[in-house]
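Researcher: Go.
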Amino acid sequence: MTDTIQYWMGDGSDAQQYLDTFRRREYYEPEKALIVAILEDAIHDYQKYRRARDAAGKERFREAEEWIMHRGKEWIFSFDNVCEFLGLDPEYLRRGLRELKRRDTEPQRRDRHGTGKHAA
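Model: Structure:
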C-alpha cells in the first residue's frame, strides 16, 4: 500500500511518517491485512482506471471513486470505517485522490507568451 499511496502523496517527510505503520506488513494480523488489501485495491483501481476509455475500465474507476468518496459509516467496510480501523484520515486520502484526478483534467499549460507553441 505504501507504494500506491506514496505515488500521489509525494515523498515528503510527513507522508513518510504517515505511512511508516504500513512498512511492516508481515506483522499484521490477518484481519488487518485484509482491510489494508481492500483499501489498496480501491486506490489502485482509482489511479489505474481514472483515464480509462473502455467501458470496463470506466466502470472500475466509477466503483472505486464511489466507494472512496462516499461519506458514512453505515456499512462495516465503508471507506470511512476502513480508514478509521487503519488509523488513517479519510479526508486526507480523498483530497489527494481528488487532486490527482484534477491534474488529469486541467488543460495543458501554455508557454510564457500564452501561444501554446514552442520554438523549434
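Model: Residues 84 and 90 are 8 Å apart (CA to CA).
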